Amino acid sequence: MTKAKRLILLGGIIIFALLIILWRPTILIYGIQRAGLYAAIALPMALVLGIVHIVNLAHGELLMIGAYLTYFVCSTFGMDPLVAMLPVSAVMFLLGMVVYKVTIKHTLKAPELNQLILTFGLAMVFGQSVNLIATSQPRTLSVDYVSTSLTFGKLTFGVYDFIFPVAALIILGGLLFFLRKTRVGKAAQAVGQNPKGAEIVGIDVDKIYLIIFSLSTALVGIMGSLYLTKQSIFPLVGGPYTMKSFALVAMAGIGNLPGVLFASLILGVAETFLLSFKGYGGWSNIVFFAFIIIVILIRSHRGKQI
Amino acid sequence: MELSECAVIHLERWINSMSNLEIRNLTKRFAGLVAVNNVDLSFGGDEIVGIIGPNGAGKTTLINLVSGIFYPTSGQILMDGVDITTMPAHKRTQLGVGRTFQLIHPLEDLSTIENIMIGFIFSQGFSKKVAKEKSEILCKSLDLERWNRSVSQLTILEIKKMEIAQALATNPGVLFLDEVMAGLNSDELKELIGLIKKLAKEKTIAIGIVEHVMGVIKELADRVVVLENGAILADGSFKAVMKNPDVIAAYLGGGNYA
Amino acid sequence: MKILTRIILPAIVVLLSITFPLFAGPYQQSIAKTIIIYMILALSWNILLKTGQISFGLAGFFGIGAYASVLLSLRLGIPPLLTIIVGGIITAILAAAMGMIILRLRAMYFAITTLALGEIFRVIIHNLPNFAGGAHGLILSSVIFDGNGYFTYWLFLAGAFFSIGLSYFFDKSKFHLALTTIRDNEITAKVRGIDIFKYLLIVFTITAGMQGLAGGLYSQSFGFVTPESSFSGDFILLPIAMALLGGIYTTAGPVVGAIVLGVISEYLKLYIPYGHLVVYGLIIVIVILFMPNGIVGMCSNTFRKVDQFNE
Description:
B: alpha/beta, Rossmann fold, C: mainly alpha, two-stranded antiparallel sheet, 2 strands
């Protein structure tokens, strides 16, 4: 995008943001909080899909598993979910390793078709297994600090939810540092750009895939813990997050991690915008799809085929 | 050759009038790299034009631009007077632009004969039955006998013949052969050179042949075009081009080919 | 061997399937009808798969067809049989319109976009309480043929034969060459004269029509539609598992897979009443990893080895 176009876009966004602040500031606040949630969940997919090109349709189900694990740890040991994040993330990391070694590894040399169908099957297995074990009854974990709010004059809003954008920023920062400054991270980028070349140069490609996939699973698991603090969970809660994460990664562009944050801002604010109108709230669930369509149309207009 | 097959070939030759390809000021930029630089080239009829140049000179990119794999940054491509510069690839094929690929990827889910039938069916509009008959005839004329085998069983020469047949089945007026001689031994080279000569005469196809094997160019080409860094360095007879000091320099002081 | 598999076996199967209700009770008939619904979906998924693209939009188009059929009955009083056909056509037209846009995508982009389709349609229907009954759905005053088991079964069977016939057509006509080439290498396809977009659009439209048809059959025979049941993920999961198990890229595969898995699932429901859906997911995973050509693929490999041995 040229500099002029970028400035115009930025200007438009600022004007839009100002309008919202003047009219209904809660839209911006809740929009940012929601965007944070989406971004934090989408970033692990951006890592796995954008950097090493593994498509995982079970992404949302991994979120769900992380949440359920946290639930059971907390209700059994009386732990606080934010503390339980630690052991849960370790378990999720191990789960990622197992899933990679047993299934995904074998589809890497096969056509991409196989990975899509395989991970779809995994998503079903995960979802239905949890349904079997924990029944479809929604589970909630009530934590007191979740309902803290702040008041500025006429404006009152929940403050806890800012943990999501904060988490997203931390994850983004952590991932960018990991990818650019650590050996493993740089190796991962190499593998993503040219797996055969990386192998020739001496990189243990299989180990890289293993680490990246497990890392992504652990991160999503952590987000599951966070998610549990605010929302009740049920076995099929993950599905929409797979699709929305994918939409965000696609909008931002493969490999563009910071872009995921901007994309999620637009999605979060747009959804909150719709939710603020009584009777139109139900339509907020398809905003992301409208985005996908718009992205497709713009990209194909420029003569590229995705 | 049977009488009916003879008649078919004569009929086809009558229908195939001369084609003409015009490339005007064609440029292709890939984010900073100029792969094809202001190329002007025209040929047609039953000319065989050799296209040579060092690696990375833009020969395959040029073919990709003409056949519709990429769209150019600027310039024009005219096939028989029709502007095909931004036409989708399949339409260009139907208008008579044909090509083979340097890295041959035969369609492994189809048999050899089916690989060839595709051009007859989708570029020329024949039915499966007619396409099969025509494909068999085409195979015979190329001495490709094992056409009912799966592609994985073919020898390298047979694969090359299949690739050429696949392109011929689309009824090209202009055919680009991209390094089709690579990997063949001297006997196989001789056979393929002979087949291409026969082809050009019988079917009135203009052939643009990209090659590194100079002996092939010397034998086949009426005219030679030299590309370097995406631009045309020389355009003339084989002898004239080989004596051109710029051409020699481009090949890093290469030897005497005449 | 060829005479057995090509003529005698299919003839026996066809005869058995037509006379089925004469010797099978209502329970078996309902299993058969369910199998047929999933078989149609599995066949349609398989046809698009031949182009190399995976669609997860089965549930979406199925639900659209179901709703279209019910709405045509309720709002316009059109006879049920006709609504099924028209419902299928409406679904096909909708798919064509969507296809114009989303068929510019490939591979995972396309697949995931189609995954969203079911969700999108469900949400839209959910938010149209006046037109489409919203969350409560719609109920028909009577089911098709007034619930006559024989006629309903034969209608479903007709749907199955139609779908099998369509799939067979795509196997034997020039479509087979076009789709296989597109799947194998799009550049080769383009360069040999195949209009990729046209073929993708045709296949996408027709297969969506098949899915809508199945939806109409389903809704007319059960007499109701709701957003949750008509767009259920089961209509994606089971057909894919069946097509994979039976063998993709063939017509026999989804048919075999639907029958095998349909029968097995009845036993599964007895022994693992809440877990049988896990099994379908597991089947998908196992088939992809260990036997990507499914049952039919393994059988034809065996036959081919026998033939080569006899040559």
